[in-house]
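tmp note - Pimeloyl-ACP methyl ester carboxylesterase
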Amino acid sequence: MKAPRPPSPPGALRLALEWRAPMEAAASLALWPWLRNAARGDGHSVLVLPGLAASDVSTHLLRSFLRAQGWEPHAWRQGRNLGPRPGVLEACLDRVEQLHATSGRRVSLVGWSLGGVYARELAKRLPGAVRQVVTLGSPVRHHANASNARRLYEFVSGPRAYDPELMARLDEPVPVPCTSIYSRSDGIVDWRASLQPEGPATQNIRVPASHVGMGMNPVVLRLLAERLSQPEEGWQPRQGSCVCKRG
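out:
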């Protein structure tokens, strides 16, 4: 049996397809009435973590949608995501604990790209405060050569780019329900690196989206609402691990 090909940076064609991101955002705005028919929230807090070199501006549309649907979304409030620099994860831990203590309810975490790596780590450290994790195009397993953004990541993250302690924990399972949303046409992260081992409380779901536009894609937003709307103690995997024929 032929061994599966290891993750590697997506090729030039997939990278070029990242230019569709503005169209994904425009589609969500045009389809807003359709999006409003998506699953409704129960008011619990959702912390949204942006991707590499991105800030809370990039997650504005996503958070606006979640708020309109009945959740209490929160920005990460740390400016641009410049990698796991000193104090970043600690500030995220404090934020989760604060939201948990203030509301008295467990917090859902949504992480886009590198933000998903943080989300998984936060859940591992604070399982009692986290309800579920949803990652969007995130490299959820340790594959240093799986991204076209590797050099950018190394540049902005500095000497802590590959923190040994953090890298050693990447492949550890998340102790709360976790959904990895990925696209086979992702031009930044090889989709294979976004596949987590599936089990009773983990699932990988394929969507038709770019990497840069994943958090603004209408299909992804509806899927995100579906995942977040599940009862806290009644998480179930989605029926079907793909919401598209391609992507």
